[in-house]
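Re: your question from the hallway

Yes, I did run it. Sequences:
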Amino acid sequence: MAFPTLQPTSRDFSPGDWPIKRFNSQSGAEVRILYGSQRINAKISLGYDNISDANAQLFLDDYATQIGTLRTFDLPAAVRTGWSGSAGSIDAPPGAKWRYELEPAVRAVRPGRSSVTVNLVAVI
Amino acid sequence: MAKVYTGRDGRLLLDGTEQIKVTNWSMTGNLETLETTSLGDSQRTYVPGVQEFNGSATLLYYNDGAGRNDAATALKKVLKIGSVSEADTVDMRLRLVDGSTNHDVRLTTYITSVTFGASVGEVSSAQITFQGTGALTAVTI
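Structure:
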C-alpha cells in the first residue's frame, strides 16, 4: 500500500530549517552554530475535499500500512500537482522521507463523500 | 395541443384538500454542490450535494358558505397554542391543470412562517412560506 495518488485540493508546505543553535550574550550579540547539513522538520499538510469514501479509505489504509506515525515513505508526484517549480523544492530534503505527523482526519460531508486532511513531517 | 399555463391552471392542495381562494404559489428547488476542484485544475468541478425545497403561497382569508376557511387552517399550523411538533407536517401538492391531466410537485413540508393582516381598501390574505422535508414524493410536471 502506497500513499494515495490523488490530487489534493489544498497543500501547505513548510520547508523546515537547518539544525541551528543560537546563543545570545548579555551584550545582545548572537552566535549561531550549525549542527547538521540537512533541513529538518519540513512539513506538508494536504487537503482532499469532497472525495469519495472509497478514496478516503485509501488514506486510512495507508495509515494502517505505515503503522501510524512509525514508518517513512515517499510521496507520489500527484501531491505536487499544480506546482510549476522544481519537484524537490516542495518535497522532503534529499535523503529524507515523509511520515505521518498526525493521524489522517476524515470528515464526513454527505453519504459517500468525505474530506480528508493529512499532515506529514519529513524525517531523515 | 399547445398550451400556455396561467394562474387559472394553478391549484394548491394541502393534505389532499384543494385550497380555495389561492392567489399565488411558488416553489424553489435547490441543489447544493460540493466542490471537487483539485490543484492543477483550470476549471472548477463539483459533485451533487443535498437538495432543498421551499416556497410560498398566498391565500385569501375567506370563509365559504359552509364556514370553511383554508387560510385559517394553514395559519394554525404556526399560530397555535403550544409547540409545533414533528406531526405538524403538511402534504403539499403544487399543481398545474391541463384538462384532466395534473402536473404536480408533491412534497412534505413544514409551514415555517405565516403573515396575515387587514388593511383599508384591501382584501385580507394570508401569506405562508413552507420548507420541504425529505425528498419530493411525486413529480408529474
